Amino acid sequence: MWGVWEVWGVWEGWEVSGHQIGECGKMERKGERCSFRAATRTQLKKMGKIGAENEKGKKYFRTHEDLVIYQLAFETAMLIFEHSKKFPVEEKYSLTDQIRRSSRSVCANLAEAWRKRRYKAAFVAKLNDCEAEAAETQVWLTFAVKCQYLTVEEVRELYGNYNQILSGLVKMIINPDNWLLH
After folding, report:
1. Are 72 and 80 in contact (CB under 8 A)?
2. 157-167, pLDDT tens digit by residue?
3. Which pairs count as long-range contacts for 81-85, CB under 8 Å and 24+ apart, including other chains?
4. DSSP annotation string for the chain
5. Per the confidence metrics, is the pTM higher than 0.90?
6. Sequence-distant (≥ 6) Cβ neighbours of residue 173 within 8 angstroms
7. Order of strands across the sheet that contains 26-29
8. 49 and 5 Cβ atoms separated by less than 8 Å
9. Nearest by Cα to 69 from 162, 178, 179
10. For residues 106 and 141, is the Cβ–Cβ distance under 8 A?
């Protein structure tokens, strides 16, 4: 299993300090050697580095899976999968397939966006794809209620989760600089 790296010391002639999860540290021209301190995810949690705030009040996230918005999207996609098992066979290649694909696509596009944080336009474009897929999933949920495959109560929770997901995505789209690698 790959560990998470925190870097202190000198790298290719640049002094690196404070490089931690999800954020580039300061680099100053100093020397020629490079030294690393490796820490696993568990060790970083114990040190309070993952999901915790640093001295500047910023939270660090190692992967897209650390984001609450991703966790909510994934859990909701799994709930949709379980509910869609009850859909009639004739919906297998239409509503069942579409609602499963769009709900999973929110997670997949968020993972892709996370890996494109070096480029603002690419990051925002993928977040826009996430937003579109989340809205599409809400449409399919509405169809599931209208076709009486799901109850209003079942969909209310799922729809509410997607409202939270959409809210989080819009905040990320409006303020992408808070998430970019610099």
Report:
1. no
2. 999 999 999 99
3. 83/144, 83/150, 83/154, 83/158, 84/144
4. ---EEEEEEEETTEEEEEEBTTB--EEEE--S---EEEE-HHHHHHTT-SSSB-TTS-B--SSGGGSHHHHHHHHHHHHHHHHHTTS-GGGTTTHHHHHHHHHHHHHHHHHHHHHTTTSHHHHHHHHHHHHHHHHHHHHHHHHHHHTTSS-HHHHHHHHHHHHHHHHHHHHHHH-GGGTS--
5. no
6. 124, 127, 128, 131
7. 26-29, 14-19, 4-11, 36-39
8. no
9. 162
10. no
Cross-strand bridge partners of residue 22: none
Q: Which of 102, 92, 101, 95 is nearest to 165 (CA)?
A: 102
Residue 84 CA to chain centroid, in angstroms? Answer: 24
Query: Which tens digits make up the pLDDT trace of 2-38?
Result: 333 333 333 333 333 443 333 333 333 334 333 333 3
Torsion sign across C-alpha atoms 133, 139, 142, 143? negative
What is the rounded distance in angstroms from the CA atom of residue 139 to the CA atom of residue 158? 12
Report the C-alpha gap between 148 and 37 in whole angstroms. Answer: 57
